[in-house]
Design a protein that fits this description.
353 residues, mainly beta, 6-stranded antiparallel sheet, 6-stranded mixed sheet, 2 helices, 3% helix
Length: 353
């Protein structure tokens, strides 16, 4: 059986079109809270001292279960992006949270028995000078030994997708940060550790990049791609490919598009290389649309823009990344698309056979 290329094959987080809210919306989560599991709501509020505060509220009663001032490393953290939930041991319960400050500091903190643990700084991207406005996904991935760098040692990786915005131009940048599942790395990931993948080399455009050079890309801490506009909807990861729609606005602060078209970018999740013949193409702009999948007559899948009242095909004959080689792809069809997803691993269940 081939090694797992991507744990989450279709993953999308809510993202306000063009202009996200100034504070994250509440997030629902389930944690281990003795003696039972507890359904909670995670919110970001304001404490009595005037700084942002992480709050856990009971879904049933609305009462406060736990709270933590967002004052880490002797500095108040301003958070605009939606927190990411992690289930490290795959038991169906949230055990860690990832928090992204607007300045570009990425924190990971444990949550256990209804209490927040000590936060750990995982990345400091403040040198970018960008405003980090949204999170776009937390994925668990593994590559087969024939493709992965030697340092990976067949271990799972945590891939974190972030969105930042340039203050003067209003253009968005997509970040992909790579972490070991064991969280054993000592060095803090910083902006200068990331590869700028905005412009590809000639070898990458012609798909003649060697396997060794491709592995060298994956040996880095991650990558970034600068887009020529604002993301108009949440980017979507499908079978190892990131799809992002980018629209133009009249000025950096505008929340309305200037054209009836936008650009669709398709990026390889691990390296940001192109997957299709072109890395980006023009597609229509539909207000309040989201990406969705539809099946073609030949069982292959197509990508559509979907609203409550209409949908429009933007990319037929979808491709998936393949384990055969570093730049191999194959058609993505319904018969081969994973319809089953691991929801939980029950390690201490009694009475179940």
């Amino acid at each position: 059986m081939k090694s797992l290329l991507l744990f989450s094959m279709l993953f999308t987080l809510p993202l306000y079109a063009l202009c996200p809210p100034s504070a994250p919306e509440p997030v629902r989560l389930t944690i281990a809270h003795q003696p039972h599991k507890a359904g909670l709501q995670l919110t970001v509020g304001i404490s009595e001292s005037g700084i942002q505060q992480l709050q856990l509220l009971s879904e049933q009663s609305g009462r406060s279960v736990a709270s933590m001032d967002l004052f880490f490393a002797n500095q108040a953290q301003q958070i605009q992006a939606r927190p990411l939930l992690e289930d490290a041991n795959l038991d169906g319960l949230t055990d860690h949270l990832w928090l992204l400050s607007k300045e570009g500091r990425l924190w990971r903190l444990p949550i256990r028995d209804g209490q927040f643990g000590l936060p750990k700084l995982m990345a400091d991207l403040t040198a970018s000078g960008l405003d980090f406005i949204a999170t776009a996904g937390l994925l668990r991935a593994r590559l087969p030994a024939t493709l992965a760098p030697l340092a990976w040692r067949q271990a799972d990786k945590q891939l974190v997708l972030l969105i930042a915005r340039h203050r003067q131009s209003g253009h968005d940048t997509l970040f992909m940060l790579r972490f070991n599942m064991a969280m054993t790395q000592v060095a803090l990931t910083q902006f200068e550790h990331l590869l700028d993948r905005t412009v590809l080399s000639e070898a990458e455009v012609n798909q003649t990049l060697s396997a060794n050079d491709w592995r060298a890309l994956l040996a880095e801490a991650g990558w970034l791609v600068q887009f020529p506009g604002k993301m108009s909807m949440a980017p979507t990861v499908i079978a190892g490919v990131i799809y992002a729609a980018v629209a133009s606005t009249a000025n950096p602060d505008a929340c309305d598009v200037t054209d009836d078209s936008q650009q669709l970018f398709a990026l390889h999740l691990h390296s940001a290389t192109q997957v299709y013949r072109q890395r980006n193409k023009l597609i229509p702009y539909l207000a309040d649309a989201q990406f969705a999948l539809r099946q073609q007559a030949d069982k292959q899948l197509k990508l559509v823009l979907s609203t409550e009242t209409q949908w429009q095909v933007v990319l037929p004959n979808l491709l998936k990344i393949s384990a055969d080689c570093h730049n191999c792809t194959e058609p993505l069809s319904l018969s081969r698309f994973p319809l089953w997803k691991r929801l939980a691993t029950y390690r201490s269940e009694l009475g179940g056979y």
